[in-house]
Amino acid sequence: MRILCFEANLIMKLGSILLIVCVLFALLSHTYGSPTPVKDADDVDFCPKSLTTSGTCSDSSRTCWDELNAAYGASGMVHQCSCKGLADNKRICTCLVRSCQK
After folding, report:
1. Is the four-CA dihedral 70, 71, 76, 81 of positive or negative sign?
2. pLDDT higher than 80, residue 81
3. Phi, psi dihedrals of residue 87, rounded to the nearest 5°
4. pTM as predicted
């Protein structure tokens, strides 16, 4: 009789422990689980875009980033710009831009 009571108590304790572990797992996975996937900059296609403007590459009043950002806007996510000087006070600005369709 004592053995049956001991086994019943043991099974109830194990069941309670298992239930607590499952509840904690559910709460923690819900709280700290992976969030809804969001498309980040690594998932976006960037294309090189060039723009010929007046001025020199050393002209600090308007950088290549400023020129292409004005042309494509903030949604273009302009980055990694380079400048190549041309004759007649001109320059070619090339940057990676998100808007591949433009």
Report:
1. negative
2. yes
3. -75, 170
4. 0.55
Tell me which residue has tokens 């969001």.
38
Q: What is the mean pLDDT of the chain?
A: 80
Q: Are 80 and 45 in contact (CB under 8 A)?
A: no
* Residue 3: both structure tokens together: 């053995």
Residue 4's pLDDT band, with cuts at 50, 70 and 90, is low
Query: CA 45, CA 59: separation in Å to the nearest integer?
Result: 30
User: Residue 93: which of 31, 46, 49 has the closest Cα?
Assistant: 49
Question: Which value, in Å, is the radius of gyration of the alpha carbons in the chain?
Answer: 31
**CA pair distance 25, 29, nearest whole angstrom:** 6
